Amino acid sequence: DSLLQEMELGAKPKFAVCAVGIFVCYFYYGILQERITRGKYGEGEEEEKFTSITALVFFQCVVNYLYAFVMSFVFSTKEKDTTRSSYYAICSFTYLLAMVTSNKALSWVNYPTQVVGKSCKPIPVMILGVLVGKKSYPLLKYLFTLMIVMGVALFMYKDKAGNASGGSDSLIGVGEVLLLVSLTCDGLTGAVQERMKLEHQTKSGHMMMAMNKWSVGYLAVALAFTGEGVEFLAFIQRHPAVLWELATFSVASALGQFFIFLCVSDFGPLPCSIITTTRKFFTVLASVIFFGNSLITRQWLGTALVFAGIFLDGIYGKQKAKKPAGEKSD
Fold first, then answer.
1. Residues near 158 by beta carbon (within 8 Å), at least 6 away in sequence
2. DSSP assignment, residue 132?
3. Three-state secondary-structure class, residue 77
4. Which of 4, 119, 194, 283 gives the lowest tally of CB atoms within 10 Å of its CB?
């Protein structure tokens, strides 16, 4: 069913390949994401920022779809996809909204804030799992989730309102609101994916292809209505160098998704979540080192609490709970 299975690699080498694949792809993805969204293009008076976030996500989804489409021929499965189109339509809409809002948030908050904020994903997934999926979780899971919430609160809290780029006097700025919207959508996506797996046993390859196909459709309509597609093309004409960054960013995203799906199907969500959590921590460090996004002591403490909460949850929090569906990272 997968490339590495065809190679008949042993369990340990295969797990190592998955881990290295996820680390390398998403490490590069994170660095490029910040470079594209926060970087400046051109010189002097011509200097400008890349603002076509919807077009950036469209570009990414097209590459993801093409990758999944090619893979469906390379490793074809005999099983037909019986999943209802409405599930894919809802799921890709919430997935897309989560991706667009988290990318847009980067215009107001730096990358470490976005990563730590998005690390709260277990919270909406858990709440909507209880409300929508009628699930029950062990007590430890609630404790670790609380650790994550506390860590994020410590990280996001602003000492001086003047630090906010938007110049707002409120505790929560535009970037933080966008992150909250993104997290709610993540929770809804997870709830619909649970239902897909329960009712139709949807395969990850089918899910990746169908969701990206719907996403491309939604985004094409959005780009046509907002005129952002024309802006995007004009920006590329003015700064052709960004095209290479966009291409490598999208390839890193598609390969990263491939390794995540492979890891989940071969080793389960637990080892995969541990890999992605450690990966996020190193991406935050890289952002601090390469882009000069300095963190104060309280933010470091918050970061440590978030990652400790996710890591402990990965080890102890799933003992009695039903294992979650293997979903995309970030």
1. 164, 171, 173
2. T
3. coil
4. 4
- C-alpha to C-alpha distance for 16 and 28, rounded to whole angstroms: 18
**Residue 48: strand pairing partners:** 41
227's torsion region: left (phi>0), alpha (psi -120 to 50) or beta? left
pLDDT in tens, 273-314: 667 766 776 777 677 777 777 778 887 888 888 788 877 877
Helix (H, G, I), strand (E, B) or coil at 260: helix
Does residue 68 or residue 172 have the better pLDDT? 68
pLDDT digits 0-9 by tens, 148-187? 778 777 776 655 444 444 444 455 788 888 988 998 888 8
Instruction: Note if the pTM is more than 0.85.
Output: no
- Amino acid letter, residue 145: T
CA-CA distance, 31 to 26, in Å (whole number)? 8
**Distances from the Cα of 226 to the Cαs of 53, 57, 146, 221, in angstroms?**
12, 15, 40, 9
Distance in angstroms (rounded) separating the CA atoms of residues 62 and 81:
21
176: phi then psi, degrees, rounded to nearest 5: -70, -40
CB atoms under 10 Å from CB of 179, counted, come to 28
> By the 8 A CB rule, do 127 and 189 touch?
no
**CA dist., res. 308 & res. 313, Å (int):** 8
> Sign of the C-alpha dihedral, residues 112, 113, 114, 120?
positive
| Structure-block tokens of residue 194 | 């649970």
Higher pLDDT, 268 or 121: 121
Give the residue carrying structure tokens 């099983």. Answer: 79
d(CA 316, CA 88): 32
Q: Report pLDDT digits (tens) over 3-12.
A: 544 444 567 7
Rounded mean pLDDT, 192-221 = 84
φ, ψ dihedrals at 40, nearest 5°: -115, 140
